[in-house]
């Protein structure tokens, strides 16, 4: 019985040691990769503003006809 208990404790120590070593290595590699990505990542490019000049009415700030069309579309969608 004593032999079985000592084998169990040995297996537990080796298992927990392996898991601890693996997780420590994983944290170290992840930290290193994060630092490398930040160092070599290209600078983000500014995004262009979306073009709002799809139609002359929108570019001029709207018109009564455009407001009527949008209102009709909203009423149609809600009904």
What's a quick, concise take on this entry?
InterPro entries: Na_pump_deCOase, OadG. With about 80 residues, the chain is mainly alpha-helical.
Quote the distance from N terminus to C terminus: 79 Å
Name the shape in a single word. elongated
The biggest beta sheet reads: none
Give the percentage of residues in beta strands.
under 5%
Helix segment tally:
3
The value of Rg in angstroms is 33 Å
Helix- and strand-based class?
Answer: mainly alpha
Roughly what percent helix? over 70%
**What is the total number of structural domains?**
1
Would you write up a description of this structure?
- The protein is mostly helical and 79 residues long.
- It has one domain (2-42, 55-78).
- It is 73% helix and 0% strand.
- The protein contains three helices and no strands.
- The termini are far apart.
Question: What keywords describe this structure?
Answer:
single chain, 79 residues, mainly alpha
What are the SSEs and their pairings?
Blueprint: H1 2-40, H2 56-59, H3 64-78
Subunit structure: Heterotrimer of an alpha, a beta and a gamma subunit.
Catalytic activity: oxaloacetate + 2 Na(+)(in) + H(+) = pyruvate + 2 Na(+)(out) + CO2
Cofactor: Na(+)
